[in-house]
């Protein structure tokens, strides 16, 4: 057989019917004579149409795959050059390629769902840890009380559009080599609604909704963090024509704390103590989220060590329990000494055998970029 229909449509021989249909529609949009009047293009259009007529019919496709004449199967059809409905396969496929699915046409509703809205709410660390309740003010669209969402002035109503007669679309007939082709588009007078509002509501200008400020109470669960969004279903904007409202999302923004830094559900802070307190031990008062507590600094505590307070952090948002409070210790070495203080320290150093300490050396800690550089260099 001289013509390779699979090659004409640009599909594999094991292509599915869906792939064949997509390939045909794509080529039909490119090669249709109304789009490209070149005579060579018209011949190409006839070829893809003949190929689709065969490959879209399971019986003809089977005959073609076996090497027979598919156009003689079941009476043949219009042939590659025919201008009848059979000569162009499924005529609705060509129409769908250009104008979409006709079943989706018709007047569209004036009533539509409203958009979702989002506001930002600032809370402090204590509120994030244990939860709270907040009153917020929201400016959103609500149903117009004057027209109850209809969009028409009181005492009036929407009327059927006299241009499209309520269909929401108008049709136009054009001529092509296929014959007369009817196309449809949204009605310019009613914008596709099928009805017009001769006297719009003076309050909402026909939209069926107005802007209004409302006060809502929001429950903030314990454990929320920066970026957490709380959904309030049905509290967003009312849709056009008094349609159902969207949702309102409250995005949490946690304010910085003067002492604690949050990392997940754990809290971190740093306490600075003199070297004598680190050597002898001490107790440091700390105002935690649960009240005043004393941090026990054990004798001999080194700079960089930490003291954990279990269960003093943030409440877990999902699941029970709380994080920890980690107190990092920083030992402060005196920068200036008077004569007596220097004498006493030298005496202490002599008693401890530390007049001339040799020190202990170890490899220094590398930063992230230094470690990456060594890794690339194979060290």
Automatic annotation (TrEMBL):
<dbReference type="InterPro" id="IPR012724">
    <property type="entry name" value="DnaJ"/>
</dbReference>
<dbReference type="InterPro" id="IPR036410">
    <property type="entry name" value="HSP_DnaJ_Cys-rich_dom_sf"/>
</dbReference>
<dbReference type="GO" id="GO:0042026">
    <property type="term" value="P:protein refolding"/>
</dbReference>
<feature type="repeat" description="CXXCXGXG motif">
    <location>
        <begin position="187"/>
        <end position="194"/>
    </location>
</feature>
<feature type="binding site">
    <location>
        <position position="204"/>
    </location>
    <ligand>
        <name>Zn(2+) 1</name>
    </ligand>
</feature>
<keyword id="KW-0346">Stress response</keyword>
<dbReference type="InterPro" id="IPR001305">
    <property type="entry name" value="HSP_DnaJ_Cys-rich_dom"/>
</dbReference>
<feature type="binding site">
    <location>
        <position position="164"/>
    </location>
    <ligand>
        <name>Zn(2+) 2</name>
    </ligand>
</feature>
<dbReference type="Pfam" id="PF00684">
    <property type="entry name" value="DnaJ_CXXCXGXG"/>
</dbReference>
<comment type="similarity">
    <text>Belongs to the DnaJ family.</text>
</comment>
<feature type="domain" description="CR-type">
    <location>
        <begin position="131"/>
        <end position="213"/>
    </location>
</feature>
<feature type="binding site">
    <location>
        <position position="147"/>
    </location>
    <ligand>
        <name>Zn(2+) 1</name>
    </ligand>
</feature>
<dbReference type="GO" id="GO:0005524">
    <property type="term" value="F:ATP binding"/>
</dbReference>
<feature type="domain" description="J">
    <location>
        <begin position="4"/>
        <end position="68"/>
    </location>
</feature>
<comment type="subunit">
    <text>Homodimer.</text>
</comment>
<feature type="binding site">
    <location>
        <position position="144"/>
    </location>
    <ligand>
        <name>Zn(2+) 1</name>
    </ligand>
</feature>
<keyword id="KW-0479">Metal-binding</keyword>
<feature type="binding site">
    <location>
        <position position="201"/>
    </location>
    <ligand>
        <name>Zn(2+) 1</name>
    </ligand>
</feature>
<dbReference type="Pfam" id="PF00226">
    <property type="entry name" value="DnaJ"/>
</dbReference>
<dbReference type="GO" id="GO:0009408">
    <property type="term" value="P:response to heat"/>
</dbReference>
<keyword id="KW-0677">Repeat</keyword>
<dbReference type="GO" id="GO:0051082">
    <property type="term" value="F:unfolded protein binding"/>
</dbReference>
<comment type="function">
    <text>Participates actively in the response to hyperosmotic and heat shock by preventing the aggregation of stress-denatured proteins and by disaggregating proteins, also in an autonomous, DnaK-independent fashion. Unfolded proteins bind initially to DnaJ; upon interaction with the DnaJ-bound protein, DnaK hydrolyzes its bound ATP, resulting in the formation of a stable complex. GrpE releases ADP from DnaK; ATP binding to DnaK triggers the release of the substrate protein, thus completing the reaction cycle.</text>
</comment>
<keyword id="KW-0235">DNA replication</keyword>
<dbReference type="GO" id="GO:0005737">
    <property type="term" value="C:cytoplasm"/>
</dbReference>
<dbReference type="Pfam" id="PF01556">
    <property type="entry name" value="DnaJ_C"/>
</dbReference>
<dbReference type="InterPro" id="IPR008971">
    <property type="entry name" value="HSP40/DnaJ_pept-bd"/>
</dbReference>
<keyword id="KW-0963">Cytoplasm</keyword>
<keyword id="KW-0143">Chaperone</keyword>
<feature type="repeat" description="CXXCXGXG motif">
    <location>
        <begin position="201"/>
        <end position="208"/>
    </location>
</feature>
<feature type="binding site">
    <location>
        <position position="190"/>
    </location>
    <ligand>
        <name>Zn(2+) 2</name>
    </ligand>
</feature>
<dbReference type="InterPro" id="IPR036869">
    <property type="entry name" value="J_dom_sf"/>
</dbReference>
<dbReference type="GO" id="GO:0006260">
    <property type="term" value="P:DNA replication"/>
</dbReference>
<dbReference type="InterPro" id="IPR018253">
    <property type="entry name" value="DnaJ_domain_CS"/>
</dbReference>
<feature type="repeat" description="CXXCXGXG motif">
    <location>
        <begin position="144"/>
        <end position="151"/>
    </location>
</feature>
<dbReference type="GO" id="GO:0008270">
    <property type="term" value="F:zinc ion binding"/>
</dbReference>
<protein>
    <recommendedName>
        <fullName>Chaperone protein DnaJ</fullName>
    </recommendedName>
</protein>
<keyword id="KW-0862">Zinc</keyword>
<feature type="binding site">
    <location>
        <position position="187"/>
    </location>
    <ligand>
        <name>Zn(2+) 2</name>
    </ligand>
</feature>
<feature type="repeat" description="CXXCXGXG motif">
    <location>
        <begin position="161"/>
        <end position="168"/>
    </location>
</feature>
<dbReference type="GO" id="GO:0031072">
    <property type="term" value="F:heat shock protein binding"/>
</dbReference>
<dbReference type="InterPro" id="IPR001623">
    <property type="entry name" value="DnaJ_domain"/>
</dbReference>
């Amino acid at each position: 057989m001289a013509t390779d229909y699979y090659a004409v449509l640009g599909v594999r021989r094991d292509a599915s019917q869906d792939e064949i249909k997509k390939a045909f529609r794509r080529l039909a949009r490119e090669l249709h004579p109304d789009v490209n009047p070149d005579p060579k293009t018209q011949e190409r259009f006839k070829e893809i149409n003949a190929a689709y007529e065969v490959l879209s019919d399971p019986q003809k496709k089977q005959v073609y795959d076996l090497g027979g004449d598919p156009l003689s199967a079941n009476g043949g059809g219009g042939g590659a050059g025919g201008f009848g409905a059979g000569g162009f396969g499924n005529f609705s496929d060509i129409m769908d390629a250009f104008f979409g699915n006709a079943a989706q046409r018709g007047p569209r509703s004036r009533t539509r769902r409203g958009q979702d809205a989002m506001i930002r709410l600032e809370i402090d660390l204590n509120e994030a840890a244990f939860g709270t309740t907040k009153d917020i003010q929201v400016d959103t669209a609500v149903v117009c009380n004057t027209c109850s969402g209809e969009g028409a002035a009181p005492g009036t109503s929407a009327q059927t559009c006299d241009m499209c007669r309520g269909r929401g679309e108008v049709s136009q007939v054009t001529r092509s080599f296929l014959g007369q082709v009817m196309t449809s588009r949204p009605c310019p007078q009613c914008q596709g609604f099928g009805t017009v509002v001769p006297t719009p509501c003076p309050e909402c200008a026909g939209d069926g909704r107005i802007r209004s400020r409302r006060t809502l109470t929001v429950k903030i669960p314990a454990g929320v963090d920066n970026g957490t969004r709380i959904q309030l279903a049905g509290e967003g904007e009312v849709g056009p024509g008094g349609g159902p409202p969207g949702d309102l999302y409250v995005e949490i923004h946690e304010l910085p704390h003067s002492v604690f830094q949050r990392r997940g559900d754990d809290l971190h802070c740093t306490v600075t103590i003199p070297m004598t307190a680190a050597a002898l031990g001490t107790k440091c008062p700390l105002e935690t989220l649960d009240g005043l507590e004393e941090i026990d600094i054990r004798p001999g505590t080194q700079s960089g060590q930490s003291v954990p307070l279990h269960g003093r952090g943030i409440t877990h948002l999902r699941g029970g329990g709380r994080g920890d409070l980690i107190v990092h210790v920083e030992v402060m070495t005196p920068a200036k000494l008077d004569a007596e203080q220097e004498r006493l320290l030298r005496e202490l150093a002599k008693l401890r055998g530390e007049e001339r300490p040799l020190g202990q050396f170890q490899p220094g800690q590398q930063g992230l970029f230094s470690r990456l550089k060594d890794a690339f260099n194979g060290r």
